[in-house]
Specification:
Elements: H1 3-16, E1 33-34, H2 35-46, H3 50-61, E2 73-74, H4 86-89, H5 107-116, H6 123-144, E3 154-155, H7 170-174, H8 188-191, H9 200-215, H10 220-226, E4 231-232, H11 234-254, H12 257-273, E5 278-279, E6 284-285, E7 288-289, H13 314-328, H14 357-369, H15 373-390, E8 395-396, E9 403-404, H16 410-420, H17 422-428
Antiparallel strand pairs: 1-2, 3-4, 4-7, 5-6, 8-9
Helix pairs in contact: 1-16, 2-3, 2-5, 2-16, 5-6, 5-11, 6-11, 11-12, 14-15, 15-16, 16-17
Amino acid sequence: MSNADLDNTARTILIENDQGGYTVPTKGLYPYQWNWDSVFVALGFATFDQDRAWREIEMLFEGQWRDGMVPHILFRKDDPSYFPGPKVWGTDGGPIPSSGHSQPPVAATVIRDLVDTDRSGKALERAGALFPQLMNWHRWYLAYRDPDNLGVLAIIHPWESGRDNLPDWDDALRAVEVKDIEPYERKDTSHVDPAMRPHKEDYDRYLSIMAACRSVGWDPAEVARTCPFFVADPGVTFIFLRASRDLLVLADKLGKEAEADEIRGWIAHMEKGAKNLWNGDLHAHVAFDRRTGKHTDGISSMSFLAPYAGLADAKTLTSLQGHFDRIAAKVRYTMPSYDPDHPSFEPLRYWRGPVWAMVNYMIARGFAEAGDAIRAEKLRSDTAQLVETSGFAEYFSPETAAGAGGGTFSWTAAIWLTWASPTHVKQAA
């Protein structure tokens, strides 16, 4: 298939996954509106329909909770093909039935991108309408995912990280007592090969965490205090720090001086706090269990987001470049979601090894901004080859390029259009 054909296919995927202003990640496996999926999808729509890009994000924020949280799933309809649905979550925090926790807050970064690339003359006005909601979401993260004010953000559930089955969560998840769950039937394994999905014992604990949060009414302060799973995550932390820098740019453009000062305080605090994620033995930022204080022992793809977050000092950058080159020598396609030298690496199981296009996009952007064009281009070229080989899959084997998970996947199509496609590269040159 030619690059032009792939461009057309990517646009068709976004259009066909459009549910009337919001986009499902892929039909069947994920039949609702997912938080960071929608935000990345907006980048794809923006390459051919900027109004539709804005609408995607605006509809996501229609589901914002009263306390400021933007949920990771909005259940705009009750689809029996997905589990766990709205009745299992049992939330009542916002105007649309939803899950009870959030997902990585990429929205401010993408909104800034939409403003910077605007062709309509209306982007700053639309950003201004969303700005108070963005502020409230960021404030929510700081209040309820960093209650001890350490300058790093925790997750209350593996799903909140957006990287559900990452080996980083294994130890903390094993400490979760399986209780208060009803008999259930998974739906994901009817859509996808079970060998690519989390194990049943993981799902039992996922549902047990939900039950614990449900028992305190999803009150965010009580959840942070009592949830059996509370792990500081470099992915959410770095994405939040980057998004805060972009939110500051928006505040300045909108003349929001008081908010700009508030955001500057967040940034300074989190730049210092990131040191809490540093594993001196691995020379990388990793997760750490807030309940036990123990750092994880593996390098995930999100460890490479430090430059994306603006943390590109010589020590950090040199270390990441060394890890990048070591890992690139182990696999054919970068960047696997987990270190192939780690015993928990699995090339085709969900988040335990596969390559994800939108993660490559963020890592490459950070490297490029840090002046490392060679590694940034390696990531883009590898992503393009994966799509050219296996189409618009949810994720890919770093060893064989085999596509896995869901097919005709919205954010893979979006990342192709906005970054990976050779057509886009030629236009940007």
